[in-house]
Amino acid sequence: MTTSSPDCLFCGIVAGDIPSTKVYEDEHAYAFADLNPQAPTHVLVVPRKHFSDVADLGRDPDAAAGLLAGIRGLVAQEGLEHFRTVLNTGAEVGQSVFHVHAHVLAGRPMGWPPG
Ligand code: AMP
Ligand code: ZN
Fold it and tell me: pTM for the complete prediction?
């Protein structure tokens, strides 16, 4: 079974080939600091296995549950009770890396709707 995609930035980070600032990890998920933080806490949570976006991830319910469990593990570890979770899907709405990732943002007031 192929679990990583060649030339994928976040597969490289999960594998440890590309440096990152690890915040949390478990069996299914890896979480690291966003290079360009948009809030005092801005962490990306990714499944260890490659999926291009959240719709692709939904094809594998076990992996999808693993990503949610990873978010839960991260926020429990960091003591976050209030946070925003964003999964951009498609370049038009801001997805720039095509390995599904949940942005977890916290530490400042946030407006709605998002821009
Ligand atoms: P998106 O635009 O939703 O695809 O989110 C991609 C995010 O990845 C952006 O917030 C970038 O700042 C972040 N990013 C890109 N390269 C890296 C990297 N090498 N390490 C950490 N974050 C990164
Ligand atoms: Zn990948």
Answer: 0.97
